[in-house]
Prior knowledge:
By secondary structure, the protein is mostly helical.
Amino acid sequence: MFDLVQGLNMDLTTAYLFGSADGTTFLQDVDYRRHWYAQYAVFFDQSPQARANCEIEQWCMSMSKAAELAMESEKPPTGTLPVVYSKMFRCLQINGADPRQISRRVASEMLDHTLAGHETSAITLTYLMYQMSQRPSLQKRLREELLTLDPPVRYRSDVSCNDEEALPAPRAIDTLPLLDALLQETLRLHAAAPAPQPRLTPEVPGGTSIEGYANIPAGVKVSSNAYTMHRIEKVFPNPEVWLPERWLNADEKDLEQMRRCFFAFSAGARMCLGSHFAIQSMKLTIAAIYTNYMTSMAEDSNMEQAMAFAARPISNNLMLRFQAL
């Protein structure tokens, strides 16, 4: 499943960045998807000098050029608009950036967004399906909730990607309580980026105070991380257990504490800028799966998370059965 949902998230991410007509088709193009991820495994550990003009950079540049042409075209788009690319491109133009550098600067930013956006969501979805596939009664409860959407997210072959009435409103999906609890708890227990998020203390008179430590001078590196924040037992009782009910049954005081310690997307001015898109796209994916299918474990997999910044399953593998409803 990890390979599959990683491809799905790449398609969703690039469609938002570059427009669906110029984004990837990793779900359908299995051979290229596997080739690309083999290249990415090499790219991930390379120095900036070794990465320059490699296949992945050229791949991103080609999508960027296509998105720029789509922006300039007077013809109506054949898919969704290049939302992020066009916003950033216009912003740089308005703010007087060197016209010779705009395209390359935007492409560089798009590569960052693409690489950061697809893998972490795939990790979260993989672990959510792993947990759900062991709980058929919870799948039934979720499906009952999902069928209250108008329209429900049923598979249909007769609609286009531009048909805004084919899917429920994003706000309707976002406010489903059980769906939200399932995602929050998966992000808590199986944080996709659990490693430390370092920050430097600012230069202020008298130094900085953090959690009882006073007079910390400027320039000191401090960090928090999702792994430990999400396992504070007085905030999250039974922290090593996947319990979506904790988000449904908590009173306002406890819920406030849980949200305060929730660190899946970091926090503050440097937190993940794609968090809202990630949450919405993951909720839509979960809704599409569990409205139309039941899932169950096909075989046991090693689902221990890797000790890495992006903590995917060590096995890179989860085998599930899908039963159409």
